[in-house]
Q: What sequence folds into this?
């Protein structure tokens, strides 16, 4: 079955970086786009960016452009998101999710989430 | 504007019908998808496209759209439907949008 499995929870100090992985299985990795979405405690969903797993091109919202890098390793069927210069406001659960590459981007499969805590 | 607007909270009596709405300019060109999120869990896709449901989603969930507004309708609402519902879409530049979420309370 289609599955996205993310790396485990992490605790980081302010100013550090975190890199989260999202391993895909059960489908052709390069035929879909992978998105990253985060959710701060008690808050709504925030889109962090996406990568077309086939072409490798990415798209970020303005608030992510300076600190977020999304990449993928086709041979490992894995996408990654690195967030740099962490602050306490980056404390959140981070999700990866799969969408079609064209047309409407519905997110039909989600990872289990990765909790990142930023604390001194 | 590149935003999706939802009512923060809606309530419905057990067994009744409820409609949750989402408004935004991008919805004139792209369909919304809807997600159900229960506490401590990842969101789950419940409707997408014109009115499609992933396998395993009960047919009491349906989606519709008119001009700049998308709607999620739940008929014969069950206690287990109590959750936060998010709408989601994209714009012409490929940027992704989420609504702020609607907390559904089943009375």
A:
């Amino acid at each position: 079955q289609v599955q996205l499995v993310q790396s485990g929870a992490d605790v980081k100090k302010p100013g550090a970086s975190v890199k989260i992985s999202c391993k895909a299985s059960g489908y052709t990795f390069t035929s879909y786009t992978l998105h990253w979405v985060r959710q701060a405690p008690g808050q709504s969903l925030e889109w962090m960016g996406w990568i077309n797993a086939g072409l490798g091109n990415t798209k970020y919202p303005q608030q992510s452009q300076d600190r977020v890098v999304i990449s993928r390793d086709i041979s490992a069927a894995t996408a990654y998101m690195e967030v740099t210069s962490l602050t306490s406001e980056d404390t959140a659960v981070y999700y990866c999710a799969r969408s079609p590459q064209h047309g409407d981007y519905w997110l039909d499969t989600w990872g289990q989430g990765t909790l990142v805590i930023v604390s001194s | 504007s590149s935003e999706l607007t939802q009512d923060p909270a809606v309530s419905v009596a057990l067994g009744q019908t409820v409609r949750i709405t989402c408004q935004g300019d991008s919805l004139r060109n792209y369909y919304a998808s809807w997600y159900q999120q229960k506490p401590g869990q990842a969101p789950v896709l419940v409707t997408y496209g014109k009115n499609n449901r992933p396998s395993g989603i009960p047919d009491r969930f349906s989606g519709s759209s008119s001009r700049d507004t998308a709607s999620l309708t739940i008929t014969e609402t069950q206690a287990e439907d109590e959750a936060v519902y998010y709408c989601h879409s994209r714009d012409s530049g490929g940027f992704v949008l989420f609504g702020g979420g609607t907390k559904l309370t089943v009375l």
User: Anything to note?
Assistant: The radius of gyration of chain A is 14 Å. Chain A touches chain B through 20 residues (CB under 8 Å). The first strand of chain A starts at residue 3 and ends at 6.
